[in-house]
Amino acid sequence: MPLSRRCRCATRGPLAPSPERGPLREQELRRRMERHIGPLSDWWSRDVVLVSLGHRTVTQALDAGIPAQQVWRAVVDFLELPASER
Questions:
Q1: Alpha helices (H) in 26-81, listed in sequence order
Q2: Measured between alpha carbons, how far is 56 from 39 in angstroms, rounded to an integer?
Q3: Average per-residue pLDDT in the chain?
């Protein structure tokens, strides 16, 4: 089997991480926030306090070790985004 075929199978096989199954990374969280909040997303992350994150901002929550997926769910709820964005 050619090497390119083996590599492709290894990265796309059933055990490969997928955005639907794998943990959300902070970089992806930032991209999603940029998509929904726009150019003020960095400011929003630093200054908007979310009760559901223990009265923390997004930045403080991430620094405190709260998983990015949990932070994203709090953002989705706060912004009242559709459930499909979870």
A1: 26-37, 41-47, 58-63, 68-79
A2: 21
A3: 81
C-beta of residue 59 within 8 angstroms of C-beta of residue 34:
no
Contact 74, 50 (CB under 8 A): yes
Q: Where are the domains of the chain?
A: 23-85
Q: Report how far residue 27's alpha carbon sits from residue 33's, in angstroms, rounded to the nearest whole number.
A: 10
Percent of the chain with pLDDT over 70: 76
Question: Which position has the token pair 């930045």?
Answer: 59
d(C-alpha 57, C-alpha 5), whole Å: 45
Closest CA to 44 of 8, 17, 53: 53
